[in-house]
Amino acid sequence: LEKMTDLVAVWEVALSDGVHKIEFEHGTTSGKRVVYVDGKEQIRKEWMFKLVGKETFTVGAAKTKATINIDAVSGFAYEYTLEINGKSLKKYMENRLKTTNTWILSLGGMDYRVVLEKDTMDVWCNGQKMETAGEFVEDGTETHFSVGDHSCYIKAVSSGKRKEGIIHTLIVNDREIPEAVE
């Protein structure tokens, strides 16, 4: 494997199916552009005469659209920005905080990352979309699923405050799991 000598940018992007690493090589003499997602080459272009521009590719199981913008700052200095679904990485992640909940937990020596997509009520665990069963309960709803031989559910209860909306809590083996901040 050739060493990544022209590596100019690395980003970590948390999506429902996991945290993905995006690496970008830009040869400012050859114009070479290489994009890696999770260590796998997605795009390779050799000998590009135009040193600025953009490269678009997809990330993760849901094939989320990502674009690397290459802009000249001054002389031979370049700036690299990553957009996810047409938003800057920062804006995308801020929006994700509002639309998803993430929990990190350890069960029987294994680590799990559970993500709830609030708009669809899809539940992901370690990159897999889970089979779920929803049920109405006295004070809200429960979305049941299993992780290994552990029974889990996400309880959705109204906060009673309009600004806060619905509070989602992950319960595993009758234990509440604190939400993770990514």
Automatic annotation (TrEMBL):
InterPro entries listed in its UniProt record: FAIM1, FAIM1_dom_sf
Subcellular location: Cytoplasm
Gene3D superfamilies hit by this protein: 2.40.128.180
Purpose of the protein: Plays a role as an inducible effector molecule that mediates Fas resistance produced by surface Ig engagement in B cells.
Keywords assigned: Apoptosis, Cytoplasm
A single Gene Ontology CC term: cytoplasm
Phylogenetic lineage: Eukaryota, Metazoa, Chordata, Craniata, Vertebrata
Keyword Transmembrane in record: no
Tagged with keyword Transport: no
UniProt name for this protein: Fas apoptotic inhibitory molecule 1
